[in-house]
Design brief:
This is DNA-binding response regulator. Its main location: cytoplasm. The protein is 58% helix and 10% strand. α7 packs across α9 and α11 packs across α12. 28% of the residues are buried.
Length: 283
């Protein structure tokens, strides 16, 4: 008996009337799909994917703020397994190549061809059903072997994957900060660019997972490393101890005076005072 769930669809296109045309043109129920959300650009679509599991994304390429290709890069960076259909007005070979490299299942052109969409849905529905059946079989074997626990009531495998994707993104951001805290150009924007996600989305997820803003986290990492270097200097031969300005640059601060101000605000003592001994006391 086929117990595969209804596949959940997200439509992303900056043209409202096209979204409505697509929603009402296709018999989604008969195809085994349900349009659960729509968005007019990539940033909004990423937030939707954070809130609910999506099995199929149908997206335009040319959109404001965050185009379809960048949006899908961000989706893939989150390890989403969602299937993908690009529908665009541009018969552009370069676009098609990029779409394929991002794992596009279909690349269709506007004006919309109802039959082409329906054929694409048939193919994708078959692939999704096969994937879900394989997952259930593997999970059953693991359960019988005692390797996995029952999922929480109402939680699907895809929902569990989606919830973990935010944590994985934040871990990648933390790893990037750990590797590049000494770079004075490190920022939320530069990190988001490296991870192929929207800065506002990364900021939101980082705060949600760590209870700190991205800027607060970077500052704490830099000042913590500075304290470590200053204590090492206090314990070293005075002639070999690095100057405060040198340590400021080593932890990503161009301006030693600003570094000293931030350091005292956090620790209640100036960096120079740390050199008086390895045991830090508040003023």
């Amino acid at each position: 008996m086929n117990t595969a769930p209804v596949a959940r669809v997200l439509i992303v296109d900056d043209e409202y009337y096209f979204r409505q045309l697509l929603i009402h043109l296709i018999d989604w129920t008969s195809a085994g799909f349900e349009v659960v959300a729509e968005a007019e650009e990539g940033s909004a679509a990423l937030k939707i994917m954070e809130e609910q599991a999506i099995d199929l994304i149908i997206t335009d390429i040319e959109m404001p703020n965050m185009n379809g290709l960048d949006f899908v890069k961000a989706v893939r960076a989150l390890d989403s397994a969602a299937k993908l259909i690009f529908i665009t007005s541009y018969d552009n070979f370069t676009y098609a190549q990029k779409a394929i490299s991002l794992g596009a299942d279909h690349y269709l052109l506007k004006p919309i061809d109802e039959e082409a969409v329906e054929q694409a849905l048939i193919t994708i529905r078959t692939q999704l059903t096969e994937k879900w059946e394989a997952e259930r079989y593997i999970n059953r074997l693991k359960k019988e072997a005692g390797y996995v626990q029952e999922p929480e009531a109402g939680q699907s495998t895809e929902e569990g994957r989606r919830q973990g994707s935010g944590k994985r993104l934040v871990r990648k951001a933390v790893d990037h900060v750990t590797a590049h805290y000494a770079d004075d150009s490190l920022s939320l924007q530069s990190t988001a660019s490296v991870l192929f996600v929207n800065p506002s989305y990364l900021s939101h997820m980082f705060k949600k997972e760590t209870s700190e803003s991205f800027v607060e986290y970077v500052t704490n990492v830099r000042l913590g490393k500075a304290m470590e270097l200053l204590r090492q200097g206090a314990a070293a031969d005075e002639s070999l101890a690095p100057k405060v300005a040198t340590i400021a640059h080593q932890v990503g601060y161009r301006d030693p005076f600003y570094f000293s101000k931030c350091f005292k605000k956090k620790y209640g003592i100036t960096p120079n005072k740390v050199y008086e001994g390895s045991n830090v006391e508040r003023e």
